[in-house]
Structures are given as C-alpha cells and as structure tokens.
Amino acid sequence: MKKRINLLLSKKKVHFLVLYGDKIKLLASIIGVFCFIVFIFLTIILLKVKNNINSMNDKKKLYLAFLVDNKDSEANVRYFKSKESQLTTFMKDDANFLPYYTILKEAVTSSSSTQSALLDSVLINKLRDTSFTVKFSNYHNMISFIKFIESNDFLSKFSQLSLANFTLNLKTLGISSYKYQLQFRGRFNQIQ
Amino acid sequence: MNKLKIKQIQFFVKDNWIILLTIFVLFIMTMLVNYSYSALISARIEEANLTSEIKLLKNRADIIKANSQLKMEQITIYNKILSALIPENEDFFTIIYALEKISQETGFFISNYTINISSTKNKISMNVAGKGNANTFMEFLKNYNYIGGRLATSETIQFSGTNVNTQVNLNFYNKKYILGQELVPKLDLKDLALLLEIKDKVKINFEDTQESLGTDYEITDNPFQ
C-alpha cells in the first residue's frame, strides 16, 4: 500500500481541531443550551414587562384624559394656592396691631378704673416689638397696674417686657390730670 | 494559487462543519441573549419612568377628585378676590380707589398720602395721613387689610388714644402668578375659612361687568367725515 500525503492540508490547523474538536463541540453545546435558557428566560421577563408597560400606558391615557377634562379646576386651584401663599407671605409684613392693642387695653381697664388710668400711646411693629405708655392719676392705681402686669397671665403674652421709663409730673392740676407715667418696652408672643 | 486556497477551505469546512455550525449557533445565541438583555434593560427603564409618571398623574387626579368636593364656583370667586387684592401688575388707580374706600368704609378720613422711595417693584409703600376720632381709627385698624379691595399692610403702627391725627405707613402689593411644575396642592377647609373671612371684609362687586357693546351706531368708511 502506497502512502499518500495530502499536501493541500495544513497539518497544524487540522491537528488542533482534531484534538479539541469534541471538547469544543461539548463546550459550545453547553454554552449554547445555557444561552438558549437565558434567552427564553429573558424573553419571558421581557414579555411580562412589555405587558405591564402596555397596561400602564392605558392607565396613563385614562389619567391624562381625566386631567384634560379637569384642567380648568386644576388651574383654578393652582392659582388659588399660589395667590393664597403670596397673601400669607405679604401678611407677615403686617404689624397686626389690633389684637395686641386689645391685650394692653384690657390690662389697663381691668387693673384700674377707666378714668384713673390711660393707655396713652402704643407702638407695635411687624416683629411684635412694642413700646407703650400708661398714665395714672393716682399712686394706688399705678401700683395695682404694676401688680397686674407682673402676673403670669399677663407676662405669658410677652417674650420680653421691661419698664423703660417712669415719669412723675408734679405740675399737673385737677383730679383728671395724670401725674404718673410708665413707659414699657418689650416684645409680644405671637398670637395663635 | 487561489484554487489551492479554495480547495483548502473546502476540505476544512467538510472536515469541521459540525464544529463550525456549533460555533455559528453559539454566536447567534449570544447575539440573541445580548439583544434580549438590552431590550429588557430599556423596557425596565421605560417601566420605571412610566411608574413615576403614573404616580404623579394619580396624585394629581386624586387631589382634583378631593378638591372637586369643594365648590369650584367658590374657588373662582376667591380667585377674583385674590387677584384684586394682589394684582399681577401694579395699578396706582386701584391703590387710590382702595384708600378712598378705606376712608369711606371706616370713617377715618385720609387727607394725604405720599409714596416712599423704599417702594419696590412688587411693593408700593405709602405714608398715609389721616384724621378721625378714636373709634374711626379703631375701625380703620380692624379693616384696612382688605376693605379697600387691595391687600394693605402696615409694618409699624403708633396709636395714641388722645391724638388721632396720625400717619400710618401702608404697603400695597402686586405679584405675577408663575405656573410651577409642582404637584397640585390639596385644598383644605382652613384655606377656605381664611378666604371666607376675607370675602366678608372685601367689598368688591365681582358681577360680570362685561356687557355687550351695542353695534347699532352709524359706521363710516372715511374717518375724517
């Protein structure tokens, strides 16, 4: 028998595939099966997600239709809230004088008779800083007023309060003249 | 030479077609996995975006449903009041009208007013001089915020029970409404109670004054006739 040599074939290349051909097939098959399983798994999840996206799109359309139908009321509410918030912000500039003035007025009237004590001048600013002057025609009324303003009930209305000035006017004439004058400075607590 | 190469390839393919097919199939499978993975990732992103979008839309819809329990006509009237109190653009005539209205309604006679240089684009600050007795000044203090139809605030008030010829600093405001991207706010009864209180104080007629203009007048083509 004659030996034939196939000179067309490259020995080295064929040799590699002949040697590892089976192993390559096995490995490729395992990887291929694994890839197929992964592909099936991914496709199932993808289909579920797509389904979910479709139902969500339907939901979105419903909500958008509802919002379009109610856009006027939504715009009204937005405008209302915006302007209301502007109003609340701007109202912080206001001294809100009257309720604080009422506290002082009541303090003067409840501590002494109306004729013998007078809330002469009151200044209140937007930070609730206050300065007020009370005049008295007699010493006893002034003392009872001081006792009243030292009570916890009255002081609870202030974060700080101090007597800034005391004036004794000796030149006053007649019963109705106010001889004693107390000037206070302080800051009110915020009225709820 | 070319023929020799083709022959070589043919032998190679003939001997190893199974391996080559396996590698080809593996390549296809890898491509498919890669494709489906990418598709899944983009679908997940789309799903997440839609979820947050629907959440926002649902919130908006829920709030509209909750707000719809309140009377929309009421909100419309309140909006008219609010836009009169804080107009979009400054209008000095309404300030002058507001001062006259305050004077008229409270009995506290406003005799003079000057605009302060501290005024800003959104806040007109004025010194107002007024005359009256203690009662009219108290009426003024009770009502000056809203009664003129423009929001008025006073940063500092000095009141002397004996001297009522006094000066008060009043601020008037304007501000544009800017549509925000934020969620529609939910209204509660507290919001409406405040406005109800203001509505009682504001004395403006909000009836529709836009009457149709009559067209039964003579029309001429020549304006100089």
What does this structure look like?
The complex is a heterodimer of chains A (192) and B (225). Chain A is an alpha+beta fold. Chain A contains five helices and four strands, in the order H-H-H-E-E-H-H-E-E. Chain A has two domains: 17-93; 97-188, Gyrase A, domain 2 (2-Layer Sandwich), CATH 3.30.1360. Helix content of chain A is 57%, strand content 19%. Chain A has a four-stranded antiparallel β-sheet. Chain A is rod-shaped and about 155 Å long. In chain B, helix 3 (92-106) crosses helix 4. Chain B has helices spanning 2-67, 72-85, 92-106, 134-143, 189-201; strands spanning 109-115, 123-131, 152-153, 156-160, 166-173. A four-stranded antiparallel β-sheet of chain B has the order 1-2-5-3, with helices on one face. Chains A and B meet through helix 1, helix 2, helix 3 and strand 1 of A and helix 1, helix 2, helix 4, strand 4 and helix 5 of B. Chain A: Keywords: Membrane, Transmembrane, Transmembrane helix. Chain A: The chain crosses the membrane at residues 26-47. Chain B: Residues 40-67 form a coiled coil. Chain B: Keywords: Coiled coil, Membrane, Transmembrane, Transmembrane helix.
The third-level CATH topology of the largest domain in chain A is Gyrase A, domain 2
- Helical fraction of chain A equals 55-70%
In the CATH scheme, the class of the largest domain in chain A would be Alpha Beta
Count interface residues per chain for the largest interface: A-B, 65 and 75 residues
Average pLDDT of chain B, to the nearest integer? 81
Keywords (chain B): Coiled coil, Membrane, Transmembrane, Transmembrane helix
Transmembrane segments (chain B): 16-37
Coiled coil (chain B): 40-67
Keywords (chain A): Membrane, Transmembrane, Transmembrane helix
Features:
heterodimer, A: 192 residues, alpha+beta, Gyrase A, domain 2, 4 strands, 57% helix, B: 225 residues, Alpha-Beta Plaits, 2 domains, 5 helices, 52% helix, transmembrane (chain A), membrane (chain A)
